[in-house]
Amino acid sequence: MPLTGICLALAASAAAPVFVAVSEFTLAWTHSIEKVRWEEDYAVLQGPPPSLRALSARVRGSAAGMEPPDDARLQGGWYHYRPTTPLPQALRLTRSEFTPDFTLCVQASCRPMAHWLPSDGGVTLLSACTRPQGGATSP
């Protein structure tokens, strides 16, 4: 059975994506203007084809344009909720040199996304995938 996980690719590059073997992960970032932290938990579904499922999300406070959904509950300074919006095939993550990088947490170890894939200052695509033939697994 093929190994599933996530693929990280620079949208403006033809380079092969970086494969990270994972069944669940957390994606986190700080809003560039409001300086409010967001965290989203995902599962990678086997497929075929593999896909992402949003499990839960939390935001540390609220601000203009960043209101948590009506059903969010405030707990320990975080608004917790379950995302209900269907996910696109790939998450489009804008990575700018003027903001801190996204954080990717895999097996309770959190690192800047640049640990796996350096930013080109543009969009990084994050999608569920199987390990490419002959492809290496990222650390």
The gyration radius over C-alpha positions equals: 15 Å
User: Helix/strand/pairing class, anyone?
Assistant: mainly beta
Q: Largest sheet, described in full?
A: 7 strands, antiparallel
Overall 3D shape: globular
Your description of this structure?
The protein is mostly beta strands and 139 residues long. Helices cover 0% and strands 46% of the residues. The protein contains no helices and 11 strands. The strands form 2 sheets. The chain has a 7-stranded antiparallel beta sheet with strand order 6-7-5-4-3-9-10, with no helix packed on it. A 4-stranded antiparallel beta sheet has the order 2-1-11-8, with no helix packed on it. A hairpin with a 5-residue loop joins strand 4 and strand 5. The chain is globular, with a radius of gyration of 15 Å. The two termini are 21 Å apart. 22% of the residues are buried. The model has no long low-confidence stretch (mean pLDDT 88).
Summarize the structure.
The protein is mostly beta strands and 139 residues long.
What features would you highlight for this structure?
7-stranded antiparallel beta sheet; 139 residues; 46% strand; mainly beta
What's the structural blueprint in terms of helices and strands?
Elements: E1 4-10, E2 18-21, E3 24-30, E4 37-45, E5 51-59, E6 73-75, E7 78-81, E8 90-94, E9 103-106, E10 109-112, E11 123-130
Antiparallel strand pairs: 1-2, 1-11, 3-4, 3-9, 4-5, 5-7, 6-7, 8-11, 9-10
